[in-house]
Write a structure and sequence with these properties.
The protein has 103 residues and is mainly alpha-helical. The chain is 38% helix and 6% strand.
Length: 103
């Protein structure tokens, strides 16, 4: 997530010197076309061009499996990017981003 595809997270990301933060997002894919019915996109900017990883899940996997997959991805992302943040710190920054979306 970044300000272009997730309006409202810019200040949090800037505060922690992050250009973006990988976020798990659930959407439908029908005949190769992404249908995002989880939010209104006022800007018209889609997240499609910023997808880093995609995996198909079943409805019953939207809880525990999705969260575990997201956390595993973030841990690897931190390692690959030689981040100074710990997993717990980056997860807390993610939570601050989500909180900023509600304001």
């Amino acid at each position: 997530m970044n300000e272009a595809n997730t309006k409202g997270v810019e200040n949090v990301l800037k505060e922690y010197s992050l250009k973006y933060l990988p976020e798990a997002h659930t959407y439908l894919k029908v005949n190769g076309t992404i249908l995002d019915i989880t939010r209104n996109t006022i800007s018209g900017v889609s997240f499609e061009n910023t997808i880093l990883f995609e995996t198909e899940i079943q409805p019953e996997e939207i809880g525990t499996f999705k969260i575990k997959t997201h956390k595993d991805y973030l841990k690897q992302w931190l390692l690959n990017n030689n981040s100074n943040y710990s997993f717990n710190e980056i997860w807390n920054i993610r939570e601050l981003c989500i909180l900023a979306l509600t304001e």
